[in-house]
Design brief:
alpha+beta, 6 strands, four-stranded antiparallel sheet
């Protein structure tokens, strides 16, 4: 929002420095592809496709070039909605469509990406059986209400079970980035400093003399800190304030 951008503009680099912001492109969807091993989803990422456009092409059964802006928007809602365990009711509300239509979108998605459905069913069953789920690195998230007699609480725990391995793995990755980046900054005796981490984004305050080196090396450090079957892609920008760098 405009208000959000104004807040970002309040974070200003000190004189002789710039702010550098680096963040992952669709990291949770990439992690979903890695964890589910769905062939169609993996191939789309490996081919460097616009994943939302590719999903729209599958869901709406049209050529990639024929996908409209609205179809891509709806496919994006499906992609991210399913990561959070969203139901047809939730998707219908978000897209302002009927529940029947939303269910049709979800069914079509799972038809074209069956590996994702299998993974979700598997992780849901595993959560019920062992009471926790794990990230790619083995970090556990316990789900005390996964077998609750209260069906609403159980459903909420199931949604968390689906989402936590992806969101948790993304959180693990950014922490590995920070340790490796800190080591690299110290090894090269740089004055650049990490000042903020926001979800899948790192923000650095960088002396102007070190900017070129940071712009070249930071994306590589972040992209290579964790090796998954799907390559991680990093977007980077800079400016005098956080809004310009974002």
């Amino acid at each position: 929002t405009e208000e959000g951008r104004k807040i970002r503009q309040a974070f200003i680099a000190k004189e002789g420095h710039v702010l550098v912001a680096a963040d992952y492109s669709q990291i949770e969807l990439r992690i979903m592809a890695h964890l589910s091993k769905d062939e169609g989803l993996c191939n789309a990422f490996l081919a460097g496709a616009d994943i939302h456009k590719a999903t729209a092409s599958e869901v709406f059964q049209c050529e990639l070039e024929a996908v409209t802006f609205e179809q891509r928007r709806q496919a994006k809602a499906v992609n991210f909605g399913l990561i959070y365990g969203m139901s047809a009711f939730g998707l219908a509300k978000q897209l302002n469509i009927s529940r029947t239509q939303a269910q049709t979108y979800i069914d079509s998605y799972f038809h074209h990406y069956p590996g994702v459905k299998d993974y979700m069913n598997s992780i849901r069953a595993k959560a019920h059986d062992q009471g926790f789920v794990e990230t790619h690195f083995g970090r556990r998230l316990y789900l005390p209400e996964i077998n609750s007699k209260n069906k609403m609480r159980q459903a909420a725990a199931e949604r968390t079970a689906i989402n936590a391995p992806m969101q948790g793995t993304a959180a693990d990755v950014i922490k590995l980035d920070m340790t490796q980046l800190d080591n690299w900054l110290n090894k090269n005796q740089l004055k650049s400093k990490m000042i903020m981490q926001v979800h899948d984004e790192l923000v650095l305050e960088v002396p102007s003399a070190e900017l070129a080196m940071i712009l070249e090396s930071l994306p590589k450090i972040m992209a290579e800190s964790t090796i998954l079957s799907i390559p991680l892609v990093v977007d980077i920008n800079h400016g005098t304030n956080w809004d310009e760098a974002h």
